[in-house]
Amino acid sequence: MSDRIADSEKKGLTRADEVRLAIEEDIFLGRLRPGTRLDEESLAQRFNISRTPIREAILQLVHAGLVEKQPRHGAVVAPLKLHRMVQMFEVMSEIEGLCARFAARRMSEEEKQALKRLHDASNAHMKARELDAYYAVNREFHEAIQAGSHNEPLQEIARGLFARLAPYRRYQLNHPSRINDSFDEHGGVVDAILAGDPEAAYTAMRRHVTIQIDIFAEFVSIMGGNGIQ
After folding, report:
1. Which of 16, 73, 110, 170 has its CA 20 to 30 A from that of 143?
2. Could you read off the pLDDT of 155-204 as tens digits, one per residue?
3. Are 107 and 144 in contact (CB under 8 A)?
């Protein structure tokens, strides 16, 4: 078992998660260019694991739109389609904005305090620039607001979109100062929800999600474009 995978298990990640995160990094940093074939055998040797978690990781990457299946070629790295991401973030901003609006109206006091604790917990990770740890709490933060909407159909849509956009949301945190700005934006959302102000919560969350696509696009540009369309 590789050191990376051993470390990932300590963090509660599966082997498929470890492989997926490593391939995401290779794609975003330009080490895997669009059109590059992902060979299961080579990846299994690289990570010193069986092909089963490799296949699971590839399926996750296909679902996220970072990899596509092609006839006779198998799984290949897909081009990063900026216009598609913009459209998805536009929808996500509205969906999560609605979640925040309903959460401000419907969250119990216990749920509000749990949300505040998540925000407070992310502060130490932000100050230490522990991006992976911050992103893990960030995901819990968004999931708590989605659950706090107490609207099951809305939660289902939000979860699906969040999963599709997760790689992009995670990597935009590498942009200089982004983690600090993200924390501050979360603070605005928390303040509005605690105050029971639905419109302020909607506006703060919508702005938080919308700004991420600009940050991600700029980050990709700085890293060399990596075939973005």
Report:
1. 16
2. 999 998 998 888 888 888 888 889 999 999 999 999 999 999 999 999 99
3. no
65, amino acid identity: G
End-to-end C-alpha distance for the chain, whole angstroms: 37
Domains of the chain: residue spans and CATH: 3-77 (1.10.10.10), 82-222 (1.20.120.530)
Nearest to 94 by CA among 140, 157, 136: 157
Spatial distance between the Cα atoms of 119 and 25, rounded to a whole number of angstroms:
26
Identify any residues that bridge with 74 across adjacent strands, giving them in sequence order: 70
pTM equals 0.77
